[in-house]
């Protein structure tokens, strides 16, 4: 049994200690917004927040997260999340949408640290999340738009 906080709610999970957080979120807790992509930490589709840091849930054994605060796309809220969602819509970012929960999590983490990120800072923050549709220019534009709305 491992206790952690997911999206602000304390949970106790009965998964084996080596079980990746991704499968605990999806299978045990029913939070399917965090996507399975590659399973080896290359694509970034499973990105979540652990505390204030982004992590790839497919690579995080649940045993390492005792007492951690995990935020998934389902729990992402507040002014930053609202600004990002508006900008994502206004910039028509989404095509297939598969990577978008991870993109939004990473963008929120960036805007928590930097309210006016440069293109280079955005690219660095988003580099570990692959978008097969190639909407990176729209993602960058949306992050700039959200940042401006927050200022």
TrEMBL record:
<dbReference type="InterPro" id="IPR036884">
    <property type="entry name" value="2Fe-2S-bd_dom_sf"/>
</dbReference>
<dbReference type="InterPro" id="IPR006058">
    <property type="entry name" value="2Fe2S_fd_BS"/>
</dbReference>
<dbReference type="Pfam" id="PF00111">
    <property type="entry name" value="Fer2"/>
</dbReference>
<dbReference type="InterPro" id="IPR012675">
    <property type="entry name" value="Beta-grasp_dom_sf"/>
</dbReference>
<dbReference type="InterPro" id="IPR001041">
    <property type="entry name" value="2Fe-2S_ferredoxin-type"/>
</dbReference>
<keyword id="KW-0560">Oxidoreductase</keyword>
<dbReference type="Pfam" id="PF01799">
    <property type="entry name" value="Fer2_2"/>
</dbReference>
<keyword id="KW-0408">Iron</keyword>
<dbReference type="GO" id="GO:0016491">
    <property type="term" value="F:oxidoreductase activity"/>
</dbReference>
<dbReference type="GO" id="GO:0051537">
    <property type="term" value="F:2 iron, 2 sulfur cluster binding"/>
</dbReference>
<dbReference type="InterPro" id="IPR002888">
    <property type="entry name" value="2Fe-2S-bd"/>
</dbReference>
<keyword id="KW-0001">2Fe-2S</keyword>
<dbReference type="GO" id="GO:0046872">
    <property type="term" value="F:metal ion binding"/>
</dbReference>
<feature type="domain" description="2Fe-2S ferredoxin-type">
    <location>
        <begin position="1"/>
        <end position="76"/>
    </location>
</feature>
<keyword id="KW-0411">Iron-sulfur</keyword>
<dbReference type="InterPro" id="IPR036010">
    <property type="entry name" value="2Fe-2S_ferredoxin-like_sf"/>
</dbReference>
<dbReference type="InterPro" id="IPR051452">
    <property type="entry name" value="Diverse_Oxidoreductases"/>
</dbReference>
<keyword id="KW-0479">Metal-binding</keyword>
<protein>
    <submittedName>
        <fullName>Isoquinoline 1-oxidoreductase alpha subunit</fullName>
    </submittedName>
</protein>
């Amino acid at each position: 049994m491992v206790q952690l906080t997911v999206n602000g709610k304390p949970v106790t999970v009965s998964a084996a200690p080596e079980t990746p957080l991704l499968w605990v979120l999806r299978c045990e807790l029913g939070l399917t917004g965090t996507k399975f992509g590659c399973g080896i930490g290359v694509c970034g589709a499973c990105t979540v927040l652990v505390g204030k840091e982004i992590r790839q849930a497919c690579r995080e054994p649940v045993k390492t997260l005792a007492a951690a605060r995990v935020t998934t796309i389902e729990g992402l809220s507040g002014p930053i999340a609202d600004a990002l969602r508006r900008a994502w819509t206004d910039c028509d970012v989404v095509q297939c949408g598969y990577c978008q929960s991870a993109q939004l999590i990473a963008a929120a983490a960036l805007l928590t640290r930097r309210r006016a990120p440069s293109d280079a800072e955005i690219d660095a923050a988003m580099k570990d999340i692959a978008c097969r549709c190639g909407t990176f220019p729209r993602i960058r534009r949306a992050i700039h738009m959200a940042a401006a709305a927050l200022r």
